[in-house]
Design goal:
Blueprint lengths: L1 E6 L2 E7 L15 E7 L3 H9 L3 E9 L2 H12 L3 E8 L6 E5 L9 E3 L13 H6 L2 E5 L1 H4 L1 H13 L3 E5 L21 E2 L3 H8 L4 H10 L4 E5 L5 E5 L2 E5 L12 H14 L4 H16 L11 H10 L5
Parallel strand pairs: 1-4, 1-8, 2-6, 4-5, 8-9, 9-10, 10-11
Antiparallel strand pairs: 2-3, 6-7, 11-12, 12-13
Helix pairs in contact: 1-8, 6-7, 8-9, 9-10
């Protein structure tokens, strides 16, 4: 499985636990502060590499120290960073995440260079050589650019997938419609399905994407698992029962597990189970890169752990 993960790359700075921000110039002690690669492309790349895929990442970052750290972290994970373009006039995207004791993660986010990625930056030859393209955050680069990249991939026999970044409240169907005919697997969360589709019902919203051309929609719902909506019907895949430390990167881990399952020829449900297992493994520690696991470990986890009721 040769994957190009294209789009949003972020450096996360995670602090845990944070119950409240000290007032004025006050200070408080915490247990952990970590920096990790993240984003709907970068975070997905991390888990795909753990699960045995060959991964090349493409996107826009700055020439700043934040970008240097992001490249180093991805490279240490075995990801080819050759196609990350560096911008001298724009900062690398970054987030500060104060993690609450229950695992919730409010975010302070800098968009940075991600929004500058365009057609002149796309590694077309590498894309044509890939087996899979995962495009993270198409709404940031614009639907016309996204549609061109995805259609090129489809023309060259590449399996395509898309994950979204914007909260549902900021989404609209027009931000995605032109790209949907070239998307084999759409991987949004529940809030994004409702917000981007304009529907009040999750399955009705997912079917709107199918009607516009998407091949399948796998919707993540946090602790409530995932919902698969395809032309054949709808089914639910539960999350696993675990002690959650941090939910950062769980959606990206689900995407990675799902896509790895697809690449292995597994059914959509089996792929979603692998995605849920990968998300559960990541959620038990701090950051998108948590967990020293591989495909065999994830499969064994799925076989031996209870689903949430």
């Amino acid at each position: 499985m040769k994957v190009v993960t294209m789009g949003v790359h972020v450096l996360d700075v995670l602090v845990r636990p944070v119950e409240a921000i000290p007032e004025g110039q006050g200070a408080t002690l915490v247990d952990d502060i970590r920096m990790t690669a993240a984003g709907t492309a970068g975070g997905t790349a991390l888990t795909l590499a753990k699960l045995g895929a060959s991964v090349r990442s493409a996107g826009a970052i700055g020439t700043d120290p934040t970008g240097d750290m992001l490249v180093q972290l991805l490279g240490r994970a075995g990801i080819d960073t050759e196609f990350l373009v560096r911008r001298a006039d724009t900062a690398t995207s970054a987030s500060v995440l104060p993690i609450r004791p229950n695992g919730d993660r409010p975010s302070l986010h800098l968009l940075g260079a991600n929004i500058t990625y365009g057609l002149d930056d796309v590694p077309w030859e590498a894309l044509a050589e890939a087996t899979h393209l995962h495009l993270g955050g198409p709404e940031l680069i614009g639907v016309d650019v996204a549609a061109r990249v995805l259609s090129y991939a489809k023309e060259h026999g590449v399996v395509t997938s898309v994950d979204l970044l914007a909260p549902g409240v900021l989404g609209s169907f027009e931000q995605l419609a032109a790209a949907l005919p070239y998307v084999d697997h759409l991987l949004p969360n529940e809030d994004q399905v409702l917000g981007f589709s304009g529907e009040d019902d999750l399955v009705t919203g997912a079917r709107r994407f199918l009607d516009a051309g998407a091949g399948a929609v796998a919707v993540t719902r946090g602790g409530d698992g995932a919902v698969l909506v395809t032309a054949e019907g709808t089914e639910t895949v539960p999350a696993f029962e675990i002690d959650v430390v941090d939910t950062t990167g769980c959606g990206d881990a689900f995407s990675a597990g799902f896509l790895r399952g697809v690449g292995l020829g597994r059914s959509p449900r089996e792929a979603a189970v692998l995605g849920s297992a990968a998300a559960a493994l990541v959620a038990q520690g701090l950051g998108s890169d948590h967990g020293d696991f591989d495909l065999q470990t994830a499969d064994e986890f799925a076989a031996t752990h209870k689903p949430r009721p």
